[in-house]
Amino acid sequence: MRKLFFALLSLCLFSFYTCDDGDIITVEFDFDDTFSACGTNGLVFYKTKNDPSESLSIKIASITLADILEVGDDNMYENDFQLSATNTFNYRTYSNSTLPTSGLFCSDVPLSDIKIIKDIASTSGKVHIKTVLTEDDNDGIPAALEDINKNGDLTDDDTDGDGIPNYLDEDDDGDNVLTKNEKPDPNNDGDLSDALDTDGDSIPNYLDKDDDGDSILTRDEENQSADKNPANDISLNGIADYLNPEVATKVEATAYREHTIYQTYVVTLIVSNFDLQIISLDVFDFGALENSALSTSRKKTPAFN
To answer: What is the pTM of this model?
Structure first.
C-alpha cells in the first residue's frame, strides 16, 4: 500500500475546510498501488479507500479494455490521452463510512445510498497508458534459464524444433511429457543441475528425447494408450515404459499434444500536467490495474516433425 502525502494550499477555497489563506495542510492518501477498471463504452480507472472514504478515478471515454490489451509485435501497448470535459481525473470524498467494492463507478443506476461530499475534477493534463504482455510456459523453469545457448535471446532456443521456443514450450524436448512433470528442478531452488536424468547421459529428462536410453524415443513408447501421454503407459514393474529400459517396444507417435502458453498483462497509468488542486505533483503514478482478464492463455499445437 502506497502512502502519499500532498501539500494543500489555500484550501479555504473549499467550504469543507477551515483555514487561513496561505495555510499548508498535509493530507495523507493511503491508497493501494493497484486500481480497478470498468465500463464498455469508455473506461473508468479507479481506486477507493475507507476511513475516510475517498476515491480517485480517471475516465477515458474513447477506449475499452480490449483496446489497451491489443499489444503490438513488441508485446506492448502505449498511448496518451488528453484530459478534457469528457476525460476527467477526479478526487471524491463521501459521507459513507465504507464504500462498496463494486458498483460505485459504471453503474447504469447510481447507488442511492452513496453520498458524495466533494468532487474535485481536473479536465486538463495527460494520461499515459502502458500495457506490457509477458508470456511463459509455467513449466517450473524461469524463462531466463531457458536461454540454452546463453546469447541473451530466448526466441532462438527451441530444443525440439517445433517452432515454439523453450520459454513458451510446455514440452521442451517434444517427447509428449510435459517439462514440469520431468523434474527439471526437483527441489525448486532455481538450480537445474540436479534435474532428473534417468539414463545418466548428462542430458536431463526435460531436454532428452529418449529418457531411458533404450533407443526408442519417449514419444514412441505409448504401448497401452495412444493419447499423446507416455506417462500413463506402464507395462512392467510399475514403471512408465518411457523410463523403463527393459521395455523397448515402439509405437510411433503421430502428433504433438496441444500446448498452453500463459499470458500476463500489466497495465499502468501515469497522469501528468493535471490541475487537480489537492495533489501538488507534476506527475502522478496511478499504479497497476487489477483485473482477472489480465491473466489468460492461448493454445497452440505445433506441426509434428
So the answer is: 0.85
